[in-house]
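seq as requested:
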Amino acid sequence: MKYANYICLAVAFPSLWVNAEQTYQRTPLAITKITQAPTIDGHIEEHEWQGANLIEQFVEFRPNLGDKPLYPIKARIAYDDAFFYVAAEIFQPQNTIIDRVLTQGETIWNEDYFGISLDTNFDKRDAYLFHVTPSGVREDGLIDGTGYIGEWSTIWYAKTQRTDNGWSVEMAIPVQSISFDPNKQDWGLQLRHKLSQPNKHIYWNLNDPENDGWTAPQVGKITNINGLNQGKGIELKGGLSYKENQEASKWTPSADAFYKFTPNITGVLTLNTDFSGTDVDEVNINMTRFSEFFSEKRDFFLQDTQVFSFGGFSNNDYNGMPFYSRRIGQGQHSGVLDINWGSKLTGKVHNTSFGLLSVNQQQDGAKDDNTQLTVARVKQQINDNHQIGVIVTDGSSDDEKNSGLYGVDYRFASEFLAEQQIQAHAWYQETQKKNGMEDTKAYGAQLYLPNDTINIKAKYRYLGDDFNPDLGFVNRNGINYYELETRFRERPKTGLLSDYLTLYQFVYLYYQRNDTDNNWLSKEYVIRPFHWLTTSNASGYVQYESRKERLKSQYAMGRNIKFDAQDYDFDQWSIFYETPSDQMISGYIKLTSGQFFDSDRKQILGEVFFKPNKHIMLSLSRRNHYYERDGIKDNMYSTRFKANIAFNQDWSWNTMIQHNTRSDRLSVFSRLRYQTAPDELYQLSINKGYDLEDGWHSRETDFDEKTIKLNYTHRW
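struct tokens:
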């Protein structure tokens, strides 16, 4: 019977059985150290790149593994004492280039682009990512294994040019912007070209056809890297801001100072820290009874953020996270709190990664007093497969005693069955008790197969009734949590389906939460019998969801309908469709119909994008939730309008207006941005919030801040 099941899977999903020889691993490449730096202007001159390594071996990864690239690529790589250099010529007809973004910082993933992943330790566990569009819009981030941290940013340079044969790009990455072991001459590199229409992903090196091409395990080996010079290793980010709000108006200087003790160990000191002008959060209606999670956006905390990762937690999986940096500078009672100073030490010595963060800030509820917050993290790589770690946090925003936490975690990563990836995590945490009867422990484990054809994640977590770390994130404790997520995906290569579909997949999800005595609180399973992506890059799915919920107390979603404390059993159907993103007008819509507790519910979620050219991007999103029970109705909705206007590569104007009827708030954020170089930034921003509980005509301004911000970075 066991073998019959395998045969059925192989028939339904023939690519399940991957040929181990169907990889495209390049031989180690000894790269050249050049003595004359090329001019980074987008024009690739042969004499400027003389001596650089020429790479023309590229292969299509998605949708058709092994195909010859649709458009030839000629890439060059080299380095000198201070920079790692990359250049590429893409021989592509002008009318096929998708390039509709001009604003730095705007998402580029729906455009054409060229870029690299750079693993400076060549351990295939983490890497830096640098990508550029034909218009010169840059994207940088951190790769944490198979995860991506896009909020991270650093100083690097890139210029592009349109040519008669397509487009070209030149990149220069300062070695002062990255960390590395000077005793290691081997790094990891991936080169990547993405076409938006048709949707094709082209790579230089592929170690594993079952893993995403941009991830850390996919890098190829480059050698002969030596003699890098980070100068004195000093970087100073000076800032001056003028802030006018309802409390005061003042000019405030600030500074972030970085020092490289070694090329792989960085110390940071922030003084009079100012986060004004940081992107505001996009807030939708929270359809749960539990608090929402928002990702970090502040540069000081994003620097080497992957060092503090723990137990497999991420921005998409956060309940029980021991350290959540947005707890710093925020208070439950006082809101935004001033940070007086902060220090951070991060680095790697041989197989040991470490991070130490300490921040002095205003005290929540008593702004005239200060409190100290500290986080320490160590991760030890035992060998290629095993890693153990420890985390300790101390302090709270309101300076509460007994606010410490300690945790230990273990990570396993390997391959099995013809290069199928497997990962596992196990962890334990405990917070300090305020009395001996409290249950302040938490522990969990997960098994993850992050493969393309078969993707499975099984997870268990226990969060005690009193587990609530002051510097972590917990929005539901007192639970035993069980999760199973499975996906079976096929990428048709031949036949009728291959003419229309890039992939189709079956998805099954199951979630269960019990109390600490293992009595059930909620059960949910989700089935997507058919989830598809077309060759034109449109996608969609049909979904069925069934839930059981046990309410311990009355719960009100809106103003008119309340759900009593009892057991509920309900289900709903959804359909989702997203248009190809390369069109002038694109968008998505999701329609849901069914029950919610003991009410009838209909949902309409949608967003439309208008991109007439690379200078203008407008979007309008709407989320409507309709409830009805016994003739009583509730209608809640959120609306968001965004306008990104790029006058040129240096000047941009970004505006976001959002309204939410559950919180009865409307907010407006508008920012004029001028950036002539990666190390120079000028901003003028307006951030206003209105309380609309009594209607628009009786609105009250609850937040009003105007900011002028100047930043410049010096390096020695």
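The longest strand covers residues 366-381.
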